[in-house]
Amino acid sequence: MDRSKLSSESNRFIEKLRLYLFSQGIEQSDIEEVADNLAQQLYEMEQNNEPIEQITDKSPQEYLDILKEEAKKTKKTADKSISWLIPYILIGAIIFMVFGDVLRGVLYGEIVAYSFFRILSTVVIGLLFIAGSAFAVRYTSKNQLSGSKEYMILAIPAAISMLLFIAAYFMDGYVETSLVTIQSLGNMILLGIVTVIAILLSVWAKTWILPVILIAWNFPPLILENTPLGVDMQAFLSIILTVLIVGAYIYLEFQEEQQG
User: Fold this and answer.
1) I need a surface site. Which of 126, 182, 186, 220 has the fewest CB within 10 A?
2) Would you tell me how many other CB atoms lie within 10 Å of the CB of residue 49?
């Protein structure tokens, strides 16, 4: 920004900070970035008649220490906001797999059956996902990483777990283990349990994306099955409706955030 708009006191402090950073061997581009951010901050304070002495009366090192503390607090907040995704994604994935099966079981009286291998693999992969995600969060919180590297590391456990879930799904047909069957009353109870968990999880996470996805994915096919449309047209319209429902929810959420 144009530093001629700043007071002489602000400009003196910026020059002191630039000189200090230069003496510490900081690259010129980084020095200018810090100086520009400080200039913008001081300009806003002067325009709002806030005392700039709370910054300019400090030494450059004290000011940088304050920036480091603020960065740590911001990172901790970001880690907390990311950490809630771990149980949300895991539990949400399990609910997504079970909800459609038990819903059809309740509506059509179908017997829902899961192999012992599928249940065990889901539990094991889920535990690995939690452990991997916890390690990734701790690693990113202890190391200075760029935004892209941080998100890449945090995404690794989710990607590996997804691949393991897919592998377990295909292996389920080749591994012979006993079946756990769920009949009419069990379907109703299990449907009630997963619905309540989905609602409680959404209230805790302050987002209703999971119930919306469950509705968008499962109900359009059930509705279209009762129409005279062909199977291919039903599948096509089902996908369109799913995308429209989820897209509408995301759009409304975005609008609400913009207004807030």
Assistant:
1) 186
2) 7
